[in-house]
Structures are given as C-alpha cells and as structure tokens.
Design goal:
This protein has 21 helices and 82 strands. It has about 1450 residues and is α+β, with helices and mostly antiparallel strands.
C-alpha cells in the first residue's frame, strides 16, 4: 500500500526535472514479463526439483523422473542436489507437479520463473531543466544533501581552523580550500556541458573546443589562504578573469583577478567557477569562454576530474574523464585513483569473477585481455574437451541457448564487465575498478531481450562454482521469490563465493516490496543501490534500511558495449559492477581473506552520507581506497602447515554414475597443527567443489577411512577427490597439484554386447599381412558402455593381446516407455525406423528415447492443435500439418527424446515419423598388420570392467593376388533409375562406384545382376570392364524384370573370379501413374478473371520416377496452357501448388498430370476452378479454407537478431501505477510462527469484480478459505487478506478516466508451526504454480466452491518471502490506509513519518461511515476512500472520533511551504 502511495505522489507532485539522470524505471510491478523469444531447447515449461535427501543418488532419481510423461529434458544440478526438468506443455507440467506432490523423494518442485536485467533507461540530459532544478533548491535543500564527508569535522584542515557545520561545500555551495580533497595541489581538467575541455594556449587565449584531453587542458589547482583557489596552466601562467568579462591566461603572479571560488551543485555533482568579480565562467557552444555571467545555469557548469594528485594513480585511458563514479571533484565517487595508488591488481595472482548476465563481448579491445580461459577446452574444435557438457566453452557458457559461446547479443553484460575490469592504462577507452588480474567468466543466461529463466541462472551458478569463480556479479532480478534460486545461492555461499546483486530500479522500499535475488537472506549477498553524481540516491533506485547494504554510482555510467564501442547506461545494474570491482581488488590485494571478511570490508569501509542514512544498512557509498586500507585490519586464516600424504578410493557400485566404497587417507607425518581432514571433489580445471561426507578428526593414526553409506553421484564437472588438513582457524585449499588427490573412476559392468561385427576385407595382397577395417554394429544401448575392447583371438585357445579400443558414442536405438507404447508401432526398414501412431485415444503418454545425431522426418501429423502434442528434440508439434509436410527435425548429438501426449478431449488421426540415426556403426582399422591370430574378439567395456561373458569373434581372411577380389574392393555404390514406361520392363544407365585402390587390388570388371531379397544373383547379368574411372557405367537395354528380382547387385571381378561380396540398390520399376486426385481450396482473388488459391494434388499410387506434377488449363479435352508445376513431396504426402494473386483465369477446369524423364502423361486428375463474383468468392474461400489446415509449429520462434546498440526494448515507458484502495486490514502482529519463520505475500486479482462486492466480509472470507484450500499444509487462519485494491485496467488515457479491470486482494500466508521455513518454500512453489493459466482455473474453481457461484476470472501474482525481520518491521511501520472497523471510518496510519517524505500540491479528503470520497485539488482524480500523504496531518484519534460521531472528517494536506 505504501508503495502505491509513493508512486501516486511521485507521479503527481515531484518536479519534472528532479533527477535528470534517468527517465524511467525498469518495471512497475516488479515482475518480469516472459520474454518473446525465450529459450526453448528443453521445452518452454520447466520445473526445478529439489530432492529431500542432499546425498541423493541424483542420476538414479533423474533416470526415474525422465520416464514420466511429458518430460522432454533433464539437466542435473549436481552441486545443488537439484535438477531442471523440461516439460512439453503447460498441461504436462501440471501433471508432472501433481505427480511429484506424492513423491516422498522430492522435497520441493518449483515452476521456473522469468527474470530480467536491472537496467534503467536514461533519457537525454536536459540542461535547462537541470538548471531550473538547481535554482529551485533552497539552502535548506542543499543542507539536506550534505553528507558526513562534507562536514567541517570530517576535514582535518577545516576542523583545525575551528570551523563547524558544512564546509565541503558550505550551504551556498562554495567548496572551501581546507576540504580534504583540496588541501594540496592537484592537476585537473574542466569538462563543459558541451563535452569540450577548457584549455589555455601559449599566447594566453582560453577556449573550450576540444573533446580530447591534452597538455593545454590540464590545470594545477593552488589553494589560497582566503579560501579561494587559483588555476595554473601547463605554461606556468594563471587563469585571469578581467573586469571586462574575458578569461585569459597570461599572468605569472596571483592577484585578485586570479582568484576563484568553486561552487558545488549537489544536483549533478558539477561545479561552477565564480570569479573575484562575483560573476561565473561560461562556455558558449562556439567554444568561447567568458567570465561575465550573473547566474550559474547549464553553460556555467563543469565536470572537474583529477588528472593526478600526490596520492593518486591515473591511467592513460582517454575516456577516464567520463567516469565520474571512479573519480570526480565532487567527492561522490569511489576514490578509484586513490585506491589505484595502493593497488591495481597488476602484481596479484588474479581472481575469477563470474558475470551472470547477457554475455560478454570477449573480443572487445578493453576486455579481451581480461577474459577467463577454460584451461581444459581447445577452442573451435567442436568437441567438449573437458567433458563438462559444453562444447568450446572457452570464456564461459551460454545457458540461454545451451551452447559454449557466451557472446553478448544485447549489451548489458559487456557494459557491466567494463566497469569491473576494463583494462587500465592501455590508452584505450575506459578503466575498470580492477585494472588487471580479473578473469571475466562470461555466464550468459539472459537472452537478447534482457530476460531469462531462473533455472538458467541456477545453472550459471553451478558452472561458476565448478570452474573456480570467487565473485558473482548479478545485475538482474524481478519476478517473485524462488526457493530453488535461494538454495543455489546458499550453496555458492558454502563454496565461498561472494554474490553481489542489484537492488532493483522500481524506486521502492525493498523492506516492503522485496526484490530478488538481492532480498534473499543469504550471508554472501551484497545488495547494491544506485547513486547519482550529486551523492544522493538515484531516483529509480530501490532502497531498504534492512535489506539493501551499500550504494555505488549508477546514474549515467560510461562503459564498454559490444562492437568495440562505449555507451552511457543507468541503473542499479551499473552500480553493482562498481562493488564487484572493489571486491575483486580487495581479494587480489589480500588473497588469504575469506568471503565473509571481504563482504565485511565492503560494508565497513563505506563513506557515510546523510542522503543514504536510513536507506540501507550501512548508510554509505562504497569506497575503494577505504576498502584496501581496511583489509589490513583482518587477521588472515591460518591453516595447518602439515598436510596429508595420500588418498585412495575405489568405486564399488556397479551402476553407471553411482559411486560407493571407502576413502582411505594417509595422515600427515606430523599432526601437531591439524585438527581434522576433509575430502573434497575437485573439477577438471582443478577447483574445489563440494565436500564428500563429514570432516574426519585427526586421531594420530597413520591411516584414516571415510565410509560412504550408500551410493553418491559426484557433482557436475567433478574429476577427482582431494584431501586437505584443517583446524578451527583455517583450512588448506583443495587444489590438484598442491594436495593429495585420486581420480574418480566409475565402476560399472556393461550390460550388452555389440549387435554384430564383420571384417570388411583385406586390402593388402601380401601374404601374412592384413590391411582393412572391422565394422562394429554398436550395442542397442550404450549407457553402460564406455568403449569396446578389441583382442586378437584364434578360433580356439585363450584370448590374445589387446589390438585396440573403439570408443562408445552413447548410442541408443529407439526405446519406448509409457502406457501408450503398446499401440505405437516401431518398425525398421533398412536403416530407417518408422514410428507410427494411428488414430489415437484420450490421455495417451509415451516417451521414445533415442540418440543423436539423428534426423526425423514427420510424414503425417493430425492432432488436436495445442493440446495433443508431439515433441521431437525439444520442438513441439501439433495440429493438422499436411501442407507443411514432410517436416524435418534434427536431434542433436547425445541423448534425445520424442514425447507424445494427448489430453482427455478431442482426438485425431495420429502421426508417422521416419527416424534415421547416425553413428550406429563403428570402425576398427588394421593398418597393414601381421596378425598374431586368425581373428579378433570384440567385447563391451566400461572403464576397466568388461562384459561378463564372451565377446563377438570376427574371422580375418588374409587376401592374396591368387584369389578373387577382396571384399575390401566391393563397389562403394550402385545407382539406377528406370527410364522405360513399360510395366515390368526396365532400361537406363547403371552406375557403379569403385572402391579406392580397386585397380591395384586386382579388380578388372564389375558384374551387374538382378538379385532376390537375399542378394542371390538371378540370370546371367551384364559385365562392365573396369577402366579405373571415378564411376563405371553400363547402358542397360530394355529388359523384362524376372520373377523374384527386387534389387540390382554389383560384384567386383578379377583374374581369379568374382567376389562374394556385393553392393545393391532397390529395383524400382517406373511406369506411368497419374495423380490420385486433385482439389481446389477456393478462389481468394476478388477480381473477375483472376484467381488465387491452392491446388492440392493427391499423390500417384507409385510416385517413383515422377519429376513433377504439371497443372494445365483444360478445355474441350485438350491442354490449353501450362499454369504451374511442382515436385512431389514423397512419403505419400499431398503436393500443394500455390497460385498467387494475379493468376489469370484461362478457363474453369485444370488437368494435373505426372511428368517423367521420358515425358508427360496425357491423362491426369481434373479439378474445377471457378472464378466466382466477389461476394460468392469470399464466402467460398472462407468455407474452403477450413478444408486444408495450415498448422504451424507451436512454441516460441527462434531467437531474433539482437536489437541495435542503444535500443533497450526490455525497459517499458516510465509510468506510475495509480490504484485505489477500498479496504485494508490492521497491521498484522509479528508473533508465533510468522515471527519465527516469516510469511509469503502475493495477490489475487478477480477480473470484472466491483469494489462493492470485494470489500464485503463474506467475499474476503471466501478468498481466504479458497487460497488456503489451494496451498499445502495451510489452514484458513494462516491466510490474511491485508488490502483490497483496484486492479489496473483500461478505458482512458489517464487515471481519471481509467476503468478498473477488477479487484486485487493482497494477502499474506503465515508459516506453519509444524513445517516452518520448509513449509513456506512449498507455499511459495505452489503460488508460482498457481500464477500460470492452468493454475488460474484452479483458483476459479476454489472460489466458486466457496461462494457457490462463479466469480470473475482469477489470477495469482508470483509470491515474495517476508523474512521474520521484515515481518516484524512491517508490524512496527504499519503504513496502511485502513478501513477496518467494518468499513465504518477512515483511519490514516503512517507510523514511520519522516520529514523527507514531502511533496508539493494540495489534497482534500472526507470520510464517513458506510462510504468515503476523495477530491484532489489540481488533478482530475477521484477514488473511493483513499488519501495519499507525504506528511501526517491527522492523528488516529481524529479517525476514531469520526467513527463515533458518524460525522464527515475533513482534512487538508499541505505542501512543502506550509500552504494549504
């Protein structure tokens, strides 16, 4: 409610130019909209599953979940004990969630949510408005912005002179020379509002025409005893303001005309230069500089930047002057140059910072040297070298698009990266807070439109932990609370990662309106607000006395963007990287610090500002110099000097991916400083992951053991186990190369052998040597196979030596699970699987597991659109798709799925797929080898374990020149196309492709024959003399096809006969076949004499040999003229010939014929084409349009190109939410379970409901009961309706004419004493689920049941968690407009009044029993029972008195100046 009041007041009452740095906010509701082009590789519907047992065998559980209907993808989050499950549709998601409600192994299943970047769209700077705002500020207003740093007491030189109050500046804005930042000479530049620099020439002229800094634009500031300053040029002269008004630089001594005052503007952090004559220095657009202006408007203001001071180090980056947040004369920066004097990170060991954002342009000239490089990935080879599930993830990974390329296709992540770690002192662009040493790990989870999935953010966190990141920068947020994301951040905390998060841009109080992830109460989070150049909180920035930690510069921040350029952006997104950069600088400066110590340093080292007091826990702005100096005060961890000597582990669990056994540790030679040992998983990159089991006490024994109770699944990226020593004051770091380690080797026993194996023939004709390949048909399922071992083996006797190894490829033949499998046919035709479901029934579910790479051709699809779906490799299909078939869908390499789901309503004709898998065959090469045996044995293996039984034996034949051609030289292929129109008569060219080396192998000819089904020759055949050509050709004369012939075969021949091996091609007898039928869709061209529409051609009985179907106008039994032709689609699919607008109607009938290589047929299919009048035509076209369905792929389209630089479409226009409250409850008491565990807050909107109905006690009670009935383990007394508001609607351009769309019931749910915080997580997850369209139907039903009648369409908002601290604070604040005594009186409760919350304008209100009204002066607004106050003008007693007397209560709100 308080948030609504603030928004309304700010919309109506704040000056238009109050904050010139920004023009809008990211979001009005705090909830991010779903992106237009979101990631869809695993289905658009996802659920994050958290298991009850943290030590769960994750892979086994996921195998179980994978078989559930509708599951199209599973991504394990090993470090978190969680998984992301992709579902094929919203209905499938609902069924899945219902199923998991009864699953005891699952602690929580949370539907995925959307988040977005925390950016704020800056408008163009209006300098006139800026000047007007500055003039409007009174001296009292200026004093209000004075922070502790500006007090005389905070500046030793001023305090020593006995000065009190504000000195830096004094109330009129003058900056005294005793101020700490000015107490010694400094070289500075003066940048005008025209973006040019003040410069002095050797001749004495002073101008401001250059946008670049050079020697002439640098001035040394000298401080005079009378609190004035003088400016010395690089030529040794001083700036002089003559009484004529000109500014020159030709004097070498300081007189009165060389003395100036600097007048500070706390509106934008700039300075005006006041001359001895009381005038102001001004720069005109032409570049002329004068000193004769009576007032300081826009042209009289300068941005002063230090070039160098004795306690500063300044880089040579040309755009440094734009970085006011790093260095500005107004003391509202982070003191970056002062920090760089101490440390820039150049000499450090480095630190990895994960940028969880839109990606990073890793080619940018100011970032490429700072990018993290995956040490175990080979760039550009298309291989997942380190086995972490991401191909070529050299600089990070892209979780939005599931690939290894995190290139920024937006600009946000690159901008943030430049502030953190832009290379300093390289003469290019900008400098980041950490010049050198930061390794930027790009973790892209936000798409080009700035939005993304919570589940992908969790995956990014998982990746960062595994690959050694120490700090995570998070300039994003929105949506409701998600316990899954909170747990991921908690696990990052356990791994020692700092999580820096933007506080949000809605300008609201995060204590009242939580913003996530910054509001999660996890101790590694630092929540960051934004400040403007004047030192005050940015107008858009969220704040929170208890939930936001620090502030940093965030308005008009200049930094890198993709394409090698730079740009200004505003937002808490821009403030967050300043804090991340300082944290990195501190951690590199003192690497031994722990994460909690680094966080504490950030908080303890802020500069206090009165403008920030009460707005965040520290009340201050981060300061890099202070942070480095504060780091000295922390005692470093002191781990043991002695270390364990060895670690051993052997897996004993035969299941793939599951481990069990005993870890054996050889203790340190001396345990004098060791209290315990701990075992950790370590990634391939060598970074510590999570611990395995509990710490093992040091007992003095030389050998210690850690028993694994049950099986465990190692986290993602885990490669080894390490053991470290520790004690209470420190633990050694787990890292391969520095601590004992043992590789994790999975113990499993293969379940299957390869299906077959054969020798392809010896190509080496020397006796006693073999050169050839063995073809291995892989096992039907390679899940338990890592490779195939190939041994030498004679027909008798023991197995010989290992000849070689063939890697497994994860191959899997189609395998169906689900109750519909018994009615789904899977047949194999040669190398193609035909998967078919004929006319189907209700509620069918099936999942067909396959492996890729594979190609699926959909040849038939007829389902109820949107509701009955076929999902192939993540692509969801539905509807009637004849005109789009055949449709080809690729399944990527690795495990894939085809998922079929039908709902319980309309059914249709079904579907047919043709699946072609690559990789079913493997080859093992023998390169001119002298074989020690006459054969080979091939056996499946997993690691060191082999299939329990004999393998497949393959006989080897040693080929010599005295034998027929070797099978190695059988033809590569044979092709033939019949060109004779006769039935059972063929003719045409037969082409044979010789094998490599065939001529040298003794092949002199090829024999072509008819063959039966087994390939046995029929008849005498034909001989082709081998001429060592690329293709050998035979002109086959017209020949009758003999009985039983189904193929043509070709064999190689030589001096000693024909080879037994052959190559075949199917025999297709091509003969004339007309189209089966043809139909017309109806004319869509309204002009007489012209047609447009679709001609649907039903395929010929046998389409073999048909080149295309040709349509002719047909008149009096003759073809008149050709209209169009179209190649057949094949697979028995109708061919559609499209006629565009403007096709002349040359008759009323068309003839469609088949066209072959030898010519067209004369007979075909006739179809009437009527060119009807306009009215009839439109009607017929509309009727006919329903006969041919044009269904499209359901789901989201592919990612569109990124917006142009500078476009920020994810940020809406800045509008203020104006809503009326019709009822509010008393502030809830913070007691019981709510005080201990907290509450969940959300809202229910009922479309079409009136305020009169909504405020009734019966309606509120029904809402309470309905909500309770939908939530797990929640009673009605735990649900509290706290506010009844208008739901924003339409109907007019402003609030006065807007019509509410319905009513919104804001409610809170107490934690249950029984289930505590875990119960709140379940309530939160259920509310997220109810916020979907399917969930809305359940809410409708629950309300109808409570009221015994239907109400308006319902919708639930995403929830937010109110921690116990926020629950207690809310009870104390009590900011509510309440009508709680059965709506009999208005009661204004604003317990946390502050003088800061004031506004201009006037309001009048009146309230009486049974009704209330409001009239607002100066604005055309009317609400029921609402008054917006920024200053309390009535006491609660007055409200009670009005209720007792039943007399209208009158009051007037006053403006800032006390006027009514």
């Amino acid at each position: 409610m308080a948030q609504i009041f603030r928004r309304l007041a700010s919309l109506l009452l704040l000056p238009a130019a109050f904050d010139v740095s920004a023009a809008g906010s990211l979001s009005n509701s705090g909830k991010a909209a779903a992106p237009a082009n979101g990631p869809s590789s695993d289905g658009d519907h996802r659920v994050i599953v958290r298991f009850a047992d943290e030590d769960v065998d994750l892979h086994m559980q996921l195998h179980r979940l994978r078989t559930k209907p509708g599951v199209v993808g599973v991504k394990p989050l090993d470090k978190l004990g969680m998984a992301v499950i992709g579902l094929s549709s919203e209905e499938a998601q609902e069924r899945f969630l219902d199923d998991l409600d009864e699953d005891t192994a699952v602690a929580l299943a949370v539907p995925d949510t959307f988040v977005s970047i925390d950016d704020f769209k800056p408008g163009a700077v209006d300098f006139e408005a800026m000047a007007a705002a500055q003039r409007a500020l009174s001296s009292a207003s200026a004093a209000r912005f004075a922070g502790d740093r500006r007090q005389c007491s905070a500046n030793p030189a001023c305090a020593a002179r006995g000065l009190h109050g504000a000195c830096c500046p004094v109330p009129d804005g003058t900056m005294l020379s005793c101020c700490s930042m000015h107490d010694e000479p400094s070289t500075v530049t003066f940048r005008s509002v025209h973006h040019t620099y003040l410069s002095a020439s050797p001749t004495g002229a002073v101008v401001a025409r250059s946008p670049e800094v050079d020697g002439t634009s640098k001035f040394l500031i000298l401080h005079n005893d009378d609190q004035t300053v003088s400016f010395k040029t690089s030529f040794g002269t001083f700036l002089t303001a003559e009484d004529s008004g000109w500014l020159v630089s030709d004097r070498r001594d300081i007189g009165n005309w060389e003395k100036f005052k600097l007048v500070y503007s706390d509106v934008n952090g700039t300075f005006a230069i006041q001359t001895f004559h009381g005038k102001f220095v001004s720069v005109e657009p032409t570049g002329y500089v004068v000193g004769n202006r009576a007032t300081d408007l826009a042209w009289e203001h300068f941005r002063i930047s230090k070039v160098a001071g004795p306690h500063q180090r300044m880089p040579n980056d040309p755009e440094l002057g734009r970085l006011w947040g790093m260095n500005s004369w107004g003391a509202n920066d982070i003191d970056a140059p002062e920090a760089w004097k101490i440390w820039t990170g150049e000499e450090g060991a480095g630190i990895t910072v994960g940028i969880i954002d839109t990606g990073v342009d890793y080619t940018h000239q100011d970032l490429r040297e700072q990018m993290w490089v995956n040490p175990n990935e080979i760039p550009g080879n298309g291989i997942d070298d380190d086995g972490n599930g991401h191909i070529d993830d050299v600089h990070g990974a892209d979780f939005a698009n599931n690939d290894g390329d995190p290139m920024d296709d937006q600009l946000h992540g690159t901008h943030c990266s430049g502030t953190i770690a832009g290379v300093g002192d390289n003469g290019l662009g900008v400098a980041g807070v950490s010049w050198r040493g930061v390794r930027i790990m790009a973790l892209k989870f936000l798409a080009g439109d700035g939005s993304g999935r919570t589940s992908d953010a969790i995956r990014a966190i998982d990746y960062a932990i595994a690959h050694g990141a120490k700090i995570l920068s998070n300039s994003w947020g929105g949506g409701g609370s998600s316990s899954a994301l909170r747990v991921a951040i908690e696990r990052a905390e356990a791994a020692g990662l700092l999580f820096v998060a933007a506080a949000g841009n809605s300008g609201t109080d995060n204590d009242e309106e939580p913003h996530y992830p910054s509001n999660y109460e996890v101790s590694n989070i630092v929540s960051v607000a934004s400040t403007a150049p004047g030192g005050e909180l940015s107008s858009f920035s969220c704040f929170g006395k208890t939930t936001v930690h620090v502030a940093a510069p965030g308005s008009q921040i200049y930094s890198s963007v993709p394409g090698g350029t730079y740009k200004y952006l505003s937002g808490t997104s821009m403030a967050t990287p300043h804090v991340t950069g300082i944290a990195a600088l501190v951690w590199m400066y003192r690497p031994h610090l722990s994460m909690p110590q680094v966080k504490q340093i950030l908080l303890d080292s802020v500069e206090k500002y009165s403008t920030l007091e009460g707005r965040m826990t520290t009340g201050g702005l981060v300061n890099a110099k202070n942070a480095l100096e504060t780091a000295w005060a922390f005692d470093p961890p002191n781990p043991p000097k002695h270390a364990p000597r060895a670690i051993e582990f052997v897996d004993e669990d035969p299941a793939v991916g599951a481990y069990s056994g005993v870890v054996t540790i050889t203790a340190a030679a001396s345990e004098s400083d060791i209290e315990y040992y701990r075992v950790y998983f370590v990634s391939k990159a060598g970074f510590q992951l999570q611990p395995l089991g509990e710490a093992i006490p040091a007992t003095g024994a030389s050998e210690l053991t850690l028993h694994i109770n049950g099986s465990f699944a190692p986290p993602s990226y885990a490669d080894s186990l390490v053991v470290v020593s520790g004690r209470a004051i420190g633990e050694n770091h787990a890292k391969i190369g520095e601590t004992p380690h043992v590789a994790l080797e999975d113990f499993a026993i293969p379940e299957l052998l390869p299906k077959s194996a054969s020798f392809g023939g010896d190509a080496d004709l020397q006796k006693g040597r073999i050169d050839g390949k063995v073809l291995i048909e892989r096992a039907a399922q390679e899940k338990s196979i890592s490779h195939y071992n190939v041994y030498w083996r004679n027909a008798t006797g023991p197995r010989g030596a290992l000849a070689g190894v063939v890697p497994a490829a994860g191959f899997s033949e189609p395998t169906c699970t689900g109750k519909a499998c018994e009615v789904i046919r899977i047949d194999k035709e040669d190398k193609v699987y035909v998967i078919d479901r004929a006319a189907y029934l209700d509620s069918e579910e099936a999942t067909i597991a396959v492996s890729g790479p594979a190609a699926v051709v959909v040849t038939r699809l007829s389902t109820e659109e949107y509701y009955d779906t076929l999902t192939i490799g993540g692509q969801e299909l539905s509807g009637e798709m004849e005109t789009m078939l055949p449709l080809r869908v690729a399944i990527a390499e690795g495990p894939g799925e085809i998922v079929w789901l039908s709902d319980a309503s309309v059914t249709a004709g079904g579907w047919t797929l043709r699946l072609t898998q690559e990789g079913s065959l493997a080859e093992f090469h023998l390169n001119s080898t002298a074989p020690p045996a006459d054969g080979l044995e091939i056996i499946s293996a997993f690691g060191k374990n082999e299939y329990e039984g004999a393998g497949l034996r393959v006989k080897l034949v040693d080929q010599t020149s005295s034998m027929p051609p070797s099978p190695a030289f059988k033809p590569l292929n044979i092709t033939f196309q019949d060109t004779h129109p006769g039935v059972s008569v063929i003719a045409g060219n037969v082409s044979v492709g010789p094998a490599p080396g065939a001529a040298a192998g003794g092949v002199t000819s090829y024999q072509v024959n008819f063959g039966d089904e087994e390939g046995k020759p029929i008849g005498h055949g034909w001989t082709i003399d081998a001429e060592d050509k690329a293709v050998e050709t035979l002109a086959l004369p017209a020949t009758h096809v003999p009985k039983g012939a189904v193929q043509l075969i070709a064999r190689a021949g030589g001096q000693h006969g024909l080879s037994d091996e052959f190559t075949a091609t199917p025999l297709v007898d091509v003969y004339p076949n007309p189209p089966s039928n043809a139909s017309w869709s109806g004319d869509r061209d309204s002009r007489p004499g012209w047609i447009a529409g679709d001609l649907i051609v039903e395929p010929a009985e046998a389409e073999a040999g048909i080149i295309d179907y040709v349509a002719y106008w047909y008149l009096n039994g003759h073809k008149v003229s050709e209209v169009a032709r179209q190649a057949p689609k094949g697979y028995g699919i109708p061919t559609v010939i499209h006629f565009r607008y403007g096709t002349a109607a040359n008759g009323t009938t068309m003839l469609v014929v088949s066209n072959y290589a030898w010519g067209e047929m004369d007979e075909g299919a006739l179809v009437d084409i009527s060119d009807l009048d306009s009215e009839r035509r439109l009607g017929d076209a509309a009727d006919a349009s329903g006969s041919v369905q044009h269904a499209a792929l359901s789901g989201k389209p592919p990612r569109e190109p990124a917006p142009e630089l500078g476009a920020e479409p994810w940020i809406p226009m800045h509008t203020e939410e104006v809503v009326a409250s019709h009822w509010a409850a008393q502030p809830l008491v913070a007691s019981g379970a709510a005080a201990k565990f907290g509450r969940v807050k959300s809202s229910l909107t009922l479309a079409g409901m009136t305020a009169h109905d909504a405020v009734q006690a019966t309606m509120r009670a029904a809402v309470t009961r309905a909500i309770a009935s939908l939530l797990p383990e929640v009673e009605a007394n735990q649900v509290h309706v706290v506010n009844v508001l208008d739901a924003p609607g339409g109907g007019g351009p402003d609030a006065a004419s807007a019509v509410p769309a319905g009513m919104r019931f804001e409610f809170q749910v107490d934690a249950s004493p029984r289930s505590g915080a875990a119960g709140l997580d379940r309530v939160e997850a259920r509310l997220i689920r109810l916020s979907s369209s399917t969930g809305a139907k359940k809410v409708d039903a629950a309300l109808a049941q409570q009221l015994r009648r239907a109400v308006g369409s319902a919708s639930i908002a995403e929830p937010a968690i109110l921690s116990p601290r926020l629950v207690e604070a809310a009870a104390i604040r009590g900011r509510k407009l309440s009508l709680w005594a059965e709506e009999t009186a208005a009661d204004i409760t604003i317990a946390d009044d502050s003088a800061e919350e004031q506004a201009s304008g006037a309001m009048t209100f009146a309230a009486a029993a049974g009704g209330a009204s409001l009239a607002m002066l100066g604005a055309s607004l009317a609400f029921a029972a609402i008054c917006v106050l920024r200053r309390r003008v009535l006491s609660r007693t007055d409200g009670v008195k009005a209720a007792q007397t039943r007399e209208p209560l009158q009051g007037v709100c006053v403006d800032n100046n006390g006027a009514q």
